[in-house]
Amino acid sequence: MPVTTRTVEYPADGLTMVGRLALPCGTDRRPAVLIGPEGTGLNDFQRRRADALAELGYVALAFDFNGGRWFSDPEEMLAYVMPLLADPDRMREIGHAALDVLRSEPRTDPDRIAAIGYGTGGAIALELGRDGVDLRAIGTINAVTTGRPGEAARIRCPVWAGVGSEDPIMPPAQREAFTTEMQEAGVDWRLVVYGGAQHAFHHPPVDQAVLPGVGYHARHAERAWRDVVGLLDECLPVVSPA
Asked: Which entry of 11, 19, 124, 192 is 20 to 30 Å from 66 by CA?
């Protein structure tokens, strides 16, 4: 199924964000998906995720949170990302700006939107849920982050989370805190732990320095993508036009 893609620029967090919008063939309105990248930023791998979802029939926006930058230095990435992860309101601002772009696309069905994300992008997706945004599903990989007390009760959709068993950045204590938060809030949640996988296990190797505990796991990367697509198929099915 052919898709159309374009670069979209929009303001957020005092920056000009540079995202990738992918549209399925046709002219009818379709369900839509926000896609958030990991802390290093939006690269071609995540842009292709938007294309893949458009091939499945979704309007898809791979959003940006750092003004089009790609962090090749792990320390520089941490210096940017950690203050962002500690500021829920700032994450929500970034998420809402991307959501506004997606909603403004004429092909988007504004009542049928999901948010998925990896690492920092997943944390932003969760904060949209904690802010009470009407989403059909939230899916995250490597982002079992917790929010401010009580705000998870505002999540209005199923939440799926995937994490590697050997991820030192999202260790068992963090997983337990996340699942406790979801359970106490009455959220319809699922957590999949991929055995032997490290942090960012979904992302193919890059030719640059990475943090300890980061590594690609090809088999689990494929499984996690199938799980994300399954979540969307369950909560946000594409109905072909008559």
From this structure: 192
Left (φ > 0), alpha (ψ -120 to 50) or beta: where does 234 sit?
alpha
Q: Which residues contact 163 (CB under 8 A, 6 or more apart)?
A: 141, 142, 144, 170, 175, 191, 192, 193, 194
Average pLDDT score over residue span 155-162:
98
What pTM, to 2 d.p., does this model score? 0.96
Q: For 208, phi and psi rounded to 5 degrees?
A: -165, 170
| CA pair distance 202, 236, nearest whole angstrom | 22
At 97-138, the pLDDT tens digits run: 999 999 999 999 999 999 999 999 999 999 999 999 999 999
For the chain, the distance separating the N- and C-terminal CA atoms, rounded to the nearest angstrom, is: 17
Q: Of 162, 98, 169, 165, whose CA–CA distance to 127 is shortest?
A: 98
Express each pLDDT in 189-218 by its tens digit.
999 999 999 999 999 888 777 788 999 999
Residue 201 is which amino acid? F
Report d(CA 103, CA 110) in Å as an integer. Answer: 6
Q: Is the dihedral of CA 124, 127, 131, 133 positive or negative?
A: positive
